[in-house]
Amino acid sequence: MRRCFKCGAENSDNEYLCVKCNFKLPKLDDNISPQTNIPKSARLSKVLEIFNTYNDGEISPETMIEELRKQEISFRQVMVRFQKMELPKPLQEEFQEQIDMGIEGIKLFLEAMNIVKETAPPPKDEPDDEPFELDDASKNKILKAIKKANDGNDILNECYEKSCESMRQIQEESMIYEDQLGNILEEENDEST
Fold this sequence. Notes:
This protein is mainly α. It has helices at 42-55, 61-84, 89-118, 136-192; strands at 2-3, 10-11.
């Protein structure tokens, strides 16, 4: 759904003009910013849950590595989308800072996950039923990783906020331009009659 910037009515994605006021709806490229439907802290929550359950000995090192690999794949896919993003020249200047911030935030998450994975002891030949407990040095590394993940999340949230603000400004400028163009055309029509 796309909201009309003139009257506020919601329109389907395939509409060219607003169904209520006939105002031209802006057509925005999907590559302007990666689309995400996840709340801003959902990725952080999932990664921290893995870190903390591992730190508390509730999951085995093998389970932790498996869970972090799933998260790592997701983060790497988003990073590839950021890196491959091709924007028109005017938008590239506007959004390059956000793209760079997004990549930086993702890199911090990946570094945090690698720090935690490094604390895992080598796999045993035969699994045993002994409870798993980390040494103090490993627990300190996990605390460092938690801070790094939080920093990455802060950067991604700032990236998201800046992208939203830039999009809002572009849409407002587009609306002003459309209004001015419409007024000029109306004046020309009035003068010719």
